[in-house]
């Protein structure tokens, strides 16, 4: 049981060092201090933190989600059209190949025009 607690504490310490070395702790501390120092507290502390860390606001996020959804629909439509066009192209290639082959067979099977 003691070893489990030591491993857990070692993991916590390693994670804390990781957050500190990557600048996450400083960034969060600065944002939280800025929030604390606000005379008029924002209605959404989470949105305040997101904005200070450079993330989109909730309304911007929802707008981006809607835009992404619309773009996904357009992409799916274009992909279907592309696949249909590729299929048509293959069919045209195949029919052209058959026409060339049948023309060649007809030409090869005909007797020479000068009678020899």
From TrEMBL:
Q: Which UniProt keywords apply?
A: Nucleus
What spans are recorded as compositionally biased (Basic and acidic residues)?
105-116
Spell out the residue ranges making up region: Disordered: 93-116
Q: Which GO terms describe its cellular component?
A: nucleus
Q: Which GO terms describe its molecular function?
A: transcription coactivator activity
Give compartment(s). Nucleus
**UniProt record similarity statement:** Belongs to the AMY1 family.
Q: What is this protein called?
A: c-Myc-binding protein
Which source organism?
Morella rubra
């Amino acid at each position: 049981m003691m070893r489990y607690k030591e491993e857990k504490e070692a993991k916590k310490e390693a994670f804390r060092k990781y957050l500190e070395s990557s600048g996450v702790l400083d960034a969060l501390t600065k944002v939280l201090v800025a929030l604390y120092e606000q005379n008029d507290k924002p209605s959404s502390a989470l949105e305040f933190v997101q904005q200070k860390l450079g993330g989109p606001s909730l309304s911007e996020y929802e707008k981006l989600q809607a835009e992404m959804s619309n773009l996904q629909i357009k992409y799916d439509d274009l992909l279907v059209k592309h696949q249909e066009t590729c299929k048509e192209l293959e069919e045209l290639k195949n029919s052209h190949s058959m026409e060339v082959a049948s023309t060649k067979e007809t030409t090869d099977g005909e007797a020479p025009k000068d009678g020899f």
